[in-house]
Amino acid sequence: MSLSYVRTEMLPPAEPPISERGAIRWMRANLFSGPFNSILTLLAAYVLYQLVSLAWPWLANGVWSDANSMSDCRAIVTASAGPDASGACWAMIRERWHQFIFGFYPPDLWWRPILTFGLLFVALAPVLYADNKRAMSRLCGVVGILTVLSLIGADGFSYHTVLAILLFAGLTAIAAIEPRRLLIVTLLFPFFALWMLWGGSIWGPITALLGFVVLVVVYGLVAPKLGAVMGASTGFLAACLWWLFLQTYISTAWQALLPFGLTYVPSDKFGGFLLAFVIGVASISISLPLGILLALGRRSDMLLVKTLSVGFIEFVRGVPLITMLFVASLLLQYFLPPQTKFDLILRVVILVTLFSAAYNAEVVRGGLAALPRGQYEAADALGLDYWQAQRLIIMPQALKISIPGIVSTFIGLFKDTTLVSFVGLADPLRGITTIVRADINWKGIYWEPYIFVGGIFFIVCFGMSRYSMYLENKLKTDHR
Fold first, then answer.
1. Which of 409, 276, 286, 412 has the alpha carbon at shortest distance from 350?
2. What is the dihedral of CA 474, 353, 303, 371, to 10 degrees?
3. 8 A C-beta contact, residue 92 and residue 98
4. How far apart are alpha carbons 427 and 453 in whole angstroms?
5. 480 to 283, 366, 403, 467, 473: CA distances (angstroms)
6. Which of 52, 101, 184 is nearest to 460 (CA)?
């Protein structure tokens, strides 16, 4: 008789217990991991159930069509759900959506902000996905399709649609073959957007662009002899002289020689999310580099630069944004020469940009303070000067650390664009909603416009937040 105590065959793998796999395991780990967590889960489920039970009848009885006024919505809800029922009147969104999106922009010119908004994402593509050719081409292609569909819905299949198809097809091909060339679109987009949205002579944006050409040329001539700081200062001064004293005469002369332009749209026609995006995108784009310079100035060893930077940052951070908007609306005009026409939206963009730059400066300063002293010493050991060290070693690391704070500032800035209603601009939340509710046909409507506007704000801000997380994961080089 022989006994074997060693198994000669492996047992097949068995499934884990039902309590350790699937949804049950997830619920045990995340919702019912302990007595206190279980109580909070049950309490939250009860609160959520009460909220849904209260809101669901109002949402389920909502009216989307066959109503041209609030009274029509009430009649339809009464006929379908009973005299005591209540329901959302989404027909108001169907009737007045264009005011929430475009404000009072002329309907026959809607193709201009639609095309500009589509090109905005193309201009952002090389910035958002600098080393990802596939993502850039996909973004250009998807945005091109959505832009063409929007143009067809707003303007029908016109020559604007054909132009958009050819334009986005070419840009998508460039993104797939030579994505770096899209940086040209990024540099030219601000001037193109200015011309497309406001219209007027094309020579105005072109001569404004020539001011930056003057800045670059003067910097290239002065910087090798006197240094980067003097080169940048001299170039900026030369550009300001160009813009103040030469641009108007040259653009007027070229317009008389070669007249070409679009129908002019005054700023009081802007409103809704068109206005929010104009102010938000412009302020975000300018405030970040300005905030970086202020952060460097605050940490500078030069007393004058440090004093001016600290004074500006502390003053702006100590003043509410609404106060600065009133300054832009009422007081700024008094400090300009007589007969000077300074557009209200431009004034608001300038003050909102300065406000955001002060907060960005503190966020970037926190990133600079988080770097160990060894990084600065390594830059010195490599023989790099101040600006080379900042560009190649210090600032990339500081900005990586500061990404969450910077994006939070951007999200707050975009939401704060609703405050422009206090200076007479028709923002989507208060300005357009008040105008719509003043219509006798929609008297008594309340929640629907706020839900619609809040949903769009959430989509935009959530998108910025998700991109922030993507960028953090992409740039994470530690092994935690």
1. 286
2. -10
3. no
4. 10
5. 35, 21, 18, 21, 12
6. 101
Q: What is the rounded CA–CA span in Å between residue 65 and residue 91? A: 6
Gyration radius (Cα) of the chain, Å? 28
| Chain position carrying tokens 């780990």 | 29
Q: Please compute the mean of the pLDDT values over residues 73-93 and round it to a whole number.
A: 87
Q: Which residues of 333-355 are buried (b: 16+ CB within 10 A; e: fewer)?
A: eeeeeeeeeeebbebbbbbbbbb
User: What does pTM read for this prediction?
Assistant: 0.90
Which secondary-structure segment (H or E) carries 200? strand 200-201
Q: How far apart are CA 190 and CA 109, in angstroms?
A: 19
C-alpha 20/C-alpha 419 separation (Å) is 51
Q: Which residue has the tokens 């060894």?
A: 374
Please name the amino acid found at residue 53: S
Phi-psi region of 383 (alpha: psi -120 to 50; beta: other; left: phi over 0): left
8-state DSSP, 338: T
DSSP H stretches of helix in 156-266: 159-177, 182-198, 203-226, 228-241, 247-257
Distance separating alpha carbons of residues 393 and 373, to the nearest angstrom: 12
CB-based burial label for 443 (10 Å; 0-12, 13-18, 19+): exposed
Q: Report how far residue 7's alpha carbon sits from residue 29's, in angstroms, rounded to the nearest whole number.
A: 36
Judge contact between 441 and 70, C-beta under 8 A: yes
3-state DSSP call for residue 194?
helix
Per-residue pLDDT reduced to its tens digit, 134-182 = 889 999 999 999 999 999 988 788 888 999 999 999 999 999 888 888 9
- Check residue 262 and report its DSSP letter: E
Cα–Cα distance, 333 to 270 (Å, whole number)? 20
- 58: which 2 tokens? 């109002």
Which residue did the predictor score with more confidence, 332 or 464? Answer: 464
Can you name the residues that pair with 261 across neighbouring β-strands?
201
User: What type of residue is 185?
Assistant: V
CA distance 449 to 89: 10
426 has which bridge partners? 271
The answer to whether 274 and 101 are in contact (CB under 8 A) is: yes
State CA 208 to chain mean position distance: 24
**Cα(215)–Cα(187) distance, integer angstroms:** 15
Segment 237-290, tens digit of pLDDT? 999 999 888 888 899 999 999 889 899 999 989 999 999 999 999 999 999 999
